[in-house]
Design goal:
This protein is of the alpha/beta class. Helices cover 43% and strands 15% of the residues. It has a 6-stranded parallel sheet. Strands 1-2 form a two-stranded antiparallel ribbon. The longest helix is centred in the middle third of the chain and has 24 residues, at 91-114. It is globular and about 60 Å long. It binds the ligand CC(C)Oc1ccc(CN(CCC(N)=O)C(=O)c2cnn(Cc3ccccc3)c2-c2ccc3sccc3c2)cc1.
Length: 258
């Protein structure tokens, strides 16, 4: 891809990853990147490995991408482990999935503390087993004062139910006289969503060739740039994230005019 740099056209494909990161940092980095992580099962199937091997590899990719997002200066990374409802999965797979966060946090929490990463979540964690919830809440508690990248997990998250809950809360407030009809604005609804404390996503990435939103942050993605890739989540690399950011910057570059 050619890029105008210091008045010269240069082909950035010939540069190293480090050089391209340095160049990318000269332009606005998307503050909030949301990723629908898809493709673990297919990755394992392609290698005639059990599905849980795909989930394990996928979890390692979450670590790798979190490191790189933190290095790039991304403020919020929301990861949505798009997964058909867990009850559709065989029990051994669900049990593995629910143990994976304990391994993820056990090995990665010290590094997240060093990197000043804060762990947050949106969605409903109450359906997770106690040991999974415990690992999650401990990680959120330990990292809650960190001021670097926010690693935001969308767990058991559904956008439509999130919006219905926001509307019900607002309706209740109107009934209680806490809100008037004039108060019901887009900003008001936005402030009643689980993401009220986060900037809206600037860039949405979905892997494994699926081109769907799957009931993910439907309200919040109104002005977000979408970047789809056939790459399966376990194969997703720093290169893929950098390419998505470079493409985002290209789309948001203004040559002179409006
Ligand atoms: C703070 C964090 C570590 O806490 C968590 C507590 C519970 C969960 C499990 N979970 C929630 C249940 C649901 N489906 O919503 C999933 O999201 C789910 C569904 N498939 N995969 C495999 C997969 C792995 C990697 C990428 C995509 C999918 C995962 C999964 C399991 C373990 C890990 S570790 C980092 C990400 C991740 C994702 C997640 C996190």
């Amino acid at each position: 891809m050619f890029k105008k740099l210091l008045g010269k056209q240069i082909n950035i494909d010939t540069l190293s990853l480090e050089e391209r990161v340095a160049i990318a940092k000269n332009e606005p980095i998307p503050a909030h990147v949301a990723i629908i992580m898809d493709g673990n099962g297919r990755w394992a199937k392609k290698r005639a490995m059990p599905r849980v091997a795909g989930h394990h590899e996928g979890m390692k990719t979450v670590r790798k991408v979190t490191r790189f997002a933190s290095d790039l200066g991304i403020k919020v990374l929301t990861v949505y482990a798009f997964s058909t409802e867990n009850w559709k999965r065989p029990k051994p797979e669900v049990d593995f999935l629910m143990r994976l966060p304990v391994e993820f946090l056990g090995s990665f929490l010290p590094e997240m503390m060093e990197r000043n990463v804060r762990v947050e979540m949106i969605g409903d964690p109450s359906l997770l087993p106690a040991h999974t919830q415990k690992a999650l809440f401990e990680a959120m508690e330990e990292t809650k004062y960190n001021t670097g990248l926010i690693l935001n997990f969308a767990l058991n998250y559904g956008s439509r139910s999130e919006m219905v809950n926001a509307m019900k809360t607002m309706l209740q407030k109107v009934q209680d006289g806490q809100l008037t009809m004039q108060d019901i604005t887009e900003e008001c609804l936005t402030s009643h969503l689980m993401t009220a404390h986060l900037p809206e996503p600037d860039l949405l990435i979905r892997t494994s060739g699926e081109v769907r939103l799957s009931n993910f942050m439907l309200w919040q993605l109104a002005y977000t740039e979408f970047w789809f890739t056939d790459t399966l989540w376990p194969d997703f690399s720093e290169e893929n994230l950098l390419k998505a950011v470079e493409n985002y910057q290209k789309r948001n570059r203004r040559y002179g005019g409006l």
